[in-house]
Amino acid sequence: MSLARNFLTFVGRRPVRIALSLGLTLLLGVLLVATIHFTRYDLQWLAFLGGVLFAAVLAMASHASKAEWLIARRTKQLERLREQLAEATSRSKSAAEALRMAELRIRLVADALPMPALYVDRELRCRYHNQACRELTALAAENIDGQLLRDVAGAAYPLMLPYLEQSLAGAAVSYELVWPGKSDASTKFTVRHVPYPPQHERPFGFYFQLLPLVAQFPALPSVPVRNEMTGTTAAVALAAAVDTDAETGGDGGNALYMRSITDQLMGEDDDPRAKIERALRDDHLLLLAQKILPLKSGAPDPSCYEILLRLQEEEDNLLPPGGFIPVAEQYGMMEEIDRWVVRSLISWCLGKQQADPGWRVPLFCINLSETTLSNPEFARFVRHELQRPGFAAHALCFEISDIEAINNHANVRRFISALKPAGCRFTLDAFGSVKVSFAHLKGLAVDFIKIDGVIIQNILKTPADLAKLKAIATVCQKIGVRTIAEFVESRETLDKLRELGIDYAQGFGIARPEPIAKLP
């Protein structure tokens, strides 16, 4: 069957058919001559063979005519396709030229803007920037386009890091920072992350805008941006800033914009400090928990959560989370908030145990601010709270940012040494956000290392980040420190983390923060 099918396929080819037709015609001609010769010119045979020869010639003429018709038809089709291709090419060139001109106009408009702006994709790489951005970073265009945000932002990156995950999850966020290394008013910025496309659960990236605050602020305690919270923040004391700006003839637009954000978060007729003090006094802060998933069977801590904080007013008015944190930082209230978190968390756990005696307290990770770490009284406060019967100190794990461990090593070591004997545990957060080095871990008895989310997001795309993660995992396994991967968003990333031996994973791809009351 296979041989017959192959033969039929061979015979069906056009050149073979033509050759067979010519061969049969020649064969018939030879037969005709032979018949005439051997039949001695019998008229009946001559008529028969003449008819056969005529039919063969007619068949060949028909095939030739059909072939000419097909050739003419294909030629016309080819001409039409060439015309269509020429039109499409012309339209493409016109569109490309229009796009080029539009990009040029956009570039001219963007470069004319006084505020730095750039577009960051999901890999946290800069894909577009303006002249003001180049001036701020003092980098050439080729050193910005296609580069990682952390390489472009430099020392400012740790201040931006806490807000990136929520931006990539589709939330517009805003916060305030002072560009590192500068002290004049022109380098105080309100930073806005605007996801693109908007209203999308998984945007392609976000626009990163820095609005310069040209007006001077009233004298307030200077506290760096807190690294552990994500969300939208507001400017502080901007009513006075607007008045100052108006008097000096400055640009009141930015200040007016910032004041409107402050009004949304804090109210037009309310003092921000008084509102936060009232929230602490009346327990109008909400504890939220985000699950940290163990990736290995038989993990020592199978149930782990990171504690986050939200103002009740944000929940009631559908405002972005964490907007009050920088306000509290400006007024030097972060230690009061950290104390409230520890006290409220322990009280909630004791109440949960009383209602359900079989409930086992998970491991809760609490972020701490720089001011809290630098005050020895906070460690004494924690030891006092741990004396409350029924709560085990090993259920508390304090998260300290990697940048704090580098810049304030002595304070961090003193804090860990004060609470480690009581049973508390410690996590070094955003490890690798500045550099991958274990030198500053000397003297720090940390239990976990939480690997920077930018490294985690790029392990499936960037060999360098994958190599960094492998190195971190190898060293941590040798020194007995467990690893936590943050910013985990996909099943493929999770599988890769398991393959590399990472101990825990956290991110919106695993679980979003939810009120602590919903914990099982």
Can I get a quick summary?
This protein is of the alpha/beta class. It has helices at 2-11, 14-38, 43-112, 131-137, 149-153, 157-168, 238-248, 252-266, 272-281, 312-316, 325-330, 334-355, 370-373, 376-385, 402-407, 409-419, 453-457, 463-479, 491-500, and strands at residues 117-121, 126-129, 173-178, 188-196, 205-212, 285-294, 304-311, 363-367, 396-401, 425-431, 448-451, 482-485, 504-505, 514-515.
Tell me what you see in this structure:
There is one protein chain. The chain is α/β, with parallel strands linked by helices. The strands form 2 sheets. It has an 8-stranded mixed β-barrel. Strands 2-1-5-4-3 form a 5-stranded antiparallel beta sheet, covered by helices on one side. Helix 2 runs antiparallel to helix 3, helix 7 packs antiparallel against helix 8 and helix 14 packs parallel to helix 16. The longest helix has 70 residues. The radius of gyration is 37 Å and the shape is elongated. It starts with a helix and ends in a 5-residue tail after the last strand.
